[in-house]
Amino acid sequence: MSLPSLVAMPTPLLPLVRRAEEMFLSALRDLSEQALERFDAWPAERREAFGRVCAASNFVIEQVSRDPEMLLGLAEAGLLERSLNLGEMRSLLDGELADCDDEPRLQRTLRRFRNRQQVRIIWRDLTRQAGLAETCGDLSDLADTCVDLAYQWLYARHCEQHGVPIGARSGKPQHMVILGMGKLGGHELNLSSDIDLIFGYPESGETQGEKRSLDNHQFFLRLGQRLIKVLDAPTVDGFVFRVDMRLRPYGSSGALVLSFNALEQYYQTQGRDWERYAMIKARVIGGDQKAGRELLNMLRPFVYRRYLDFSAIEALRGMKQLIQQEVRRKGMADNIKLGAGGIREVEFIGQAFQLIHGGRDLSLQLRSLAQLLTTLDGQGYLPSTVVKELREGYEFLRYTEHALQAIDDRQTQMLPDNPIDRVRVAFMLGFDSWDEFHARLLFWRERIDWHFRQVIADPDEDELSEGEELVGGEWLPLWEQDWDEEFACRQLTEAGFRDGHAACRGLAALRSASQVRTMQRLGRERLDAFVPRLLAQAVEQEDPDLALERVLPLIEAVARRSAYLVLLTENPGALQRLLELCAASPWIAEQIARFPLLLDELLNAGRLFKPPQAPELAAELNERLARIPEDDLEQQMEALRHFKLAHRLRVAASEIAGTLPLMKVSDYLTWLAEAILKEVLALAWRHTVARHGQPKRSDGSPCDPAFIILGYGKVGGIELGHGSDLDLVFIHDGDSNAETDGAKPIDGAQFFTRLGQRIIHLLTTQTTSGQLYEVDMRLRPSGASGLLVSSLSAFERYQAQEAWTWEHQALVRARVLVGCPQLTEDFERVRAEVLGRQRDVEALRQEVSEMRAKMRDNLGTRITQAGMADKAFEAEVDFNLKHDAGGIVDIEFMVQYAALAWSHQHPQLLRYTDNIRILDGLEQAGLMTGDEVRLLQDAYKAYRAAAHRQSLQKLPEVVSGDRFHDERRAVMRIWRELGLR
């Protein structure tokens, strides 16, 4: 289609124009009299264009009012009335970056350049001086230029700091390759689009030129994180581009940057159909262009198959169905990109031919949709009349998209619902009224959707849709009609419920709940569509009564947020997983009911039942927080809590499904805590330093940060369970007397105390997503009466001179969770010296026995050691897994006793903090027999597995007395053989 025509200014927009002119004139007056004169010298055509642009775009009004010199400069340079030459965008930014000497200035320069170019591009688009191709091309060039020049600037500084990355195989310096995906890759970017990127680098190796080298992966990972922050982080000047990295291998949970070999291996072995679709538009936009071309050549066989690949149609159908589900779930029928007859359908038509025939017909291997449509016409894949309609409809939709986004520089494809913005959109598209525009829009959407159905839609789709409506159909009368309790109970019982009356009462309670009674029509329709499906799947469960009982509170909790009901309706697999997990664990049911956002985790079974390893956990959390402004503490705290909730659910689900054994459950929960603590320490440190300045180390050097968090107990022993609290101790190596160097200086002791308080605040504060962890600090020197944070020297002095034996027992399970590497080494030395000194074994045995007896008396089931033979193994006497004789604590005390008694002769006993590996060490040192070690390890694992199951069932760590007889007897026997009482 041709450019949208110019129409007369609608009356409702005149006040906007007057306000904009007044704001601009006021800003000019504040600038100088000469500025006013420069504006007065504008020709009439430009003044008229200024009014048209301001009538349409709040963004332009805001920018030129904040910086009137920007618009005057653009006008005087002639950039409002002419197209940019090839390479001119890059030259303009290159010149502005010439004197840029620090990262804040880089961010400021990029953002102001972007804003200036956005004003220029919007001006030319709205005044019909630029067509769609020029507008999209300029926006894509702007993104290319900003990304690459920001990368080149950061790369040079990164090399100065860490050395130059060198390939291990080639011996040559390495650069990153930045792939632009989606519309950016196709050179079709819209006015307020995010940019989809993938980062890669040619080969592994390490940096050279600095004392401390980095491997290439770490180098480019840190560089990529800095680049995203420079582009994406909002500042007073806005942002450059929102960066989306989710198209990379493994999505948000994958590494931020991968080597070429890793990328090739992933796409060859794990690449999915939608990734083929995405990779069609991949283009090198930054970094090493030559290496980037090599990478794309490596990946081309994944995208384009050598045979006629008609399976691509089915893949695109599946993608379209997912999009339709999302559109329905979020009520986005008015979305001109994703809705029926939208931009995405035109793209799907073109890419269907590319995926099917592109491996054989090289002319189809194009990124630009406009060029692709021309090729489909010229090569006879589609009739010319169809291509003409698709092109004109697509251009109309893209012009509409630009109009929607020009208003507020906001990424939206939703039609406006307020009158003034509707007038604006119609005006920008050359229509006298919204009704005229909307009628034309509907025409094009209907034509596009018709063509889409001819190419991609499933011929059996209508029949399937009718069938889908029948899912749970037998339950519709029971739910939607007036209750006939007798009939309802009989139907529920006949379907498989043990107690039809209880199920009936549960459903009746849901119907009468206030949240349901006050639902709006759309929400109630969604609930009515969902409940029959819920019942249909519930009766398929092993225990339908339990599944329904535990899921109904969740349904009531989310009734007013009915998008969750649509999610479960549209994703039967997610609903099935919800029922299975809730039936298996009331703890999981309660978690999801309290935090319904966890329902999203049920969508991907592969991810749900396969939690990431420790490095991926840490990388994923770091990336999430990197996208949040540093000063937005509330959002950071919510992100931490959401991350913990999601990953804790994955671990629990994996344990229930049997895909994660006991030891790995504790590993994952411990890794999760460590990843969170690392980020909490970083947040607390940044906040405290910003307020008070940097403290000094004990040797006078700057701290960054000379601080560690010790984990005791379960977290120290890598044995965390569901719902475990954290036993923590804080240690610093700062100068307690030296003042910090900030605006509000305090001495070092105060600084580290406030740092510790900040950490505890971040961990324990209740938000809408709960708290991160309960924290117990009573194991610090002198307990609750001691300092919150100790210096390492004070900690060492206390442990050597004042600590009780039970504190040294606790120290056996203590390890550094996060913090300064040097201080970590110093602590490990102190721990080894304290625990490894020679002790009076008889006195030690006496003290350990007495402490154990006190704990058993206070916390166990009150059966004395002497009475164990008579009473402990009676079925009616419960067994406390942790505290009763022969239980978990007995094994822990034996291990701690052994470490304290013999580590002076066998220092390897102090290498690990978990009981299983310390027991292995006792066997290797010949201090216990293999049979004894195996008995203790097996008993310990069995007890912990039972404790985990009790936790998931929301039950105390107490089981029937008729369980674990053999294990308890073995533990008590070895206890006595060690001479403990």
Query: CATH superfamily assignment of the largest domain?
Result: Beta Polymerase, domain 2
Number of domains: 5
Amino- and carboxy-terminal Cα gap: 92 Å
**Content-based structural category:** mainly alpha
Query: What does the overall shape look like?
Result: globular
Name given to the CATH architecture of the largest domain? 2-Layer Sandwich
Main sheet: strands, sense, barrel? 5 strands, mixed
C-alpha Rg, in Å?
A: 33 Å
Weakly predicted, low-confidence segments: 459-470, 864-870
Number of strands: 14
Question: How would you sum up this structure in a few lines?
Answer:
By secondary structure, the protein is mostly helical. It has 5 domains: about 85-305, Beta Polymerase, domain 2, CATH 3.30.460; about 310-465, Four Helix Bundle (Hemerythrin (Met), subunit A) (Up-down Bundle); about 470-595, Four Helix Bundle (Hemerythrin (Met), subunit A); about 670-835, Beta Polymerase, domain 2 (2-Layer Sandwich), CATH 3.30.460.10; about 840-975, Four Helix Bundle (Hemerythrin (Met), subunit A), CATH 1.20.120.330.
Q: What would you note in describing this structure?
A:
The protein has 981 residues and is mainly α. It folds into five domains: 83-303, Beta Polymerase, domain 2 (2-Layer Sandwich); 311-465, Four Helix Bundle (Hemerythrin (Met), subunit A), CATH 1.20.120; 470-596, Up-down Bundle (Four Helix Bundle (Hemerythrin (Met), subunit A)); 668-834, 2-Layer Sandwich (Beta Polymerase, domain 2), CATH 3.30.460.10; 841-977, Nucleotidyltransferases  domain 2 (Four Helix Bundle (Hemerythrin (Met), subunit A)), CATH 1.20.120.330. It contains 44 helices and 14 strands. The strands form four sheets. Strands 2, 3, 5, 6 and 7 form a five-stranded mixed sheet that branches. Strands 8, 9, 10, 11 and 12 form a five-stranded mixed sheet that branches. Helix 11 runs parallel beside helix 13 and helix 25 (521-538) packs across helix 28. The chain starts with 13 loop residues before the first helix and ends with a helix. Mean pLDDT is 87; it is low at 459-470 and 864-870.
